[in-house]
Amino acid sequence: QVQLVESGGGSVQAGGSLRLACAASRYTFILNTMGWFRQAPGKAREAVATIYTLRFGTYEKHYADSVRGRFTISPDSGTVHLEMNFLRIEDTAIYYCAAQDGYDASWWEAEKYHYWGQGTQVTVSS
After folding, report:
1. Are strands 120-125 and 10-13 parallel, antiparallel or unpaired?
2. Which of 16, 99, 100, 118 could form a disulfide with 31 if both were Cys (CB 3.0 to 4.6 A apart)?
3. What separation in angstroms does the CA of 57 have from each of 22, 51, 69?
4. Hey, is 56 helix, strand or coil?
5. Contact, 82 vs 17, CB < 8 A?
């Protein structure tokens, strides 16, 4: 089974930065698409950023409008990172790592992802 483990969550002040990491312990070869989702209290889980691995070391990335320009998703041999800069109060949420073994144009749909981590809390305060 595929196991995803998130790390890097914590508390930061608004305007600060945080870097999350998601490590896939097994079967990384089938995880063509990995991404980050988040869920704030009272809100639905939403896609934050995803990355699809193409051949020859190229990648296709997608970002939610709310984080574009502030967050960066990047791969590192079986690990996917989410660099979060200029954090805002509204970024506070539990962040989940997710993966699927293929590609779907509807990258933002959580139901497309078959593997999930347990989440890591990100709290942004002022």
Report:
1. parallel
2. 99
3. 19, 12, 23
4. helix
5. no
Q: What's the CA gap between 88 and 27, in Å, rounded?
A: 35
Task: For residue 79, give both structure tokens.
Answer: 């690990």
* Distance in angstroms (rounded) separating the CA atoms of residues 80 and 31: 11
pLDDT in tens, the chain (126 residues): 788 999 999 999 999 999 999 998 765 555 789 999 999 999 999 999 999 988 777 899 999 999 999 999 998 877 899 999 999 999 999 999 999 888 778 999 999 999 999 999 999 999
Structure-token pair, residue 13? 């002040």
Chain Cα centroid distance, residue 91: 13
